[in-house]
Amino acid sequence: MPPHKFKVGQNVILQASRGDSRPASPVVSVTRLLPEEGGEPQYRIRIDVGGQERVVRESQLASTQTARAAEGLPGPVKKGTPLMAGSGRRGP
What we know:
This protein is mainly beta. The chain has a domain at 11-70: SH3 type barrels, CATH 2.30.30. 8% of the residues lie in helices and 33% in strands. The chain has one helix at 64-70, and strands at residues 11-14, 28-37, 40-47, 53-57, 61-63. The protein has a 5-stranded antiparallel beta sheet. The longest helix is centred in the C-terminal third of the chain and has 7 residues, at 64-70. The protein is globular. It starts with 10 loop residues before the first strand and ends in a 22-residue tail after the last helix.
């Protein structure tokens, strides 16, 4: 049984899946870890907009950091890090 990748209370990205008429929600919250089905962990999630809950497979979720990296965006910024001059980006 593979361990769950995400924790209760963690904010994650719900990815759109093929054949799903519902659009992906940008950020959802994990509310419960569920047993695996078909060899894959499942989760109960709450969609922040509207408060609906549903059950999803782990492959339908991505961490917020993974999603930001896929979009070419920088990861989380440490508080108090100065902006680099002229770039609008945070310095080292």
